[in-house]
C-alpha cells in the first residue's frame, strides 16, 4: 500500500511539474499576463505605522524572498520569455520582487495592484481596473503584474503562495487562467 501511495505521489509531482512547464511554455508566444504574488515576506498584512513611501514601516522580503525574486527573473530569461512590461503594487515587497527579477528601470508602479488587505472597500474598484488592464493586453511579449494574495484571489479565485504566479490569457471578457508557476 505504501509503495502505491509513493508511486501516486511521484506521478502527481511529475504532473504538477509538467503543468508548470506547459504554463511557462505558453508565455513564449506572447500576449499573456503573468500575475505574481510578491516573493516571501514574513508575516501577514502590514504594521500599524505603515507608510507607502517608507519601506522601514512595511513588511519586506526576507533573504529567501530576495533569492526567490531573482530566481523568478532568471527562470523567465532561461526560458526565453520576452517581458515587455512590468507593473507592480507600490508596496515595497512587491516593488522589490519586480526589481530583483526584472531590474529597477523595468518596473512601473500601478496603484490597482496595491494591497487592499486592510481596506476591503477598495477591492472592487482595484480589481476591475486590474481586470481591464489584463484584458487590454495583446502583446507583444508578456505583461508581468506583481501584487498581493488578496488581489490575485479577487481576480482569479486562486490563493497563491508567496512567489507563485498565475498565467493568464487576455480575452474580450477579461481573461482565462492558463496555469500556475512557482519559482523556488
UniProtKB/TrEMBL annotation:
Per its UniProt record, what Gene3D superfamilies does this chain match? Phosphoglycerate mutase-like (3.40.50.1240)
Signal sequence residues:
1-19
This chain belongs to the protein called Histidine phosphatase family protein
Keywords for this entry? Signal
Recorded hits in InterPro entries, A to Z, give: His_Pase_superF_clade-1, His_PPase_superfam
Q: Name one Pfam family in it.
A: His_Phos_1
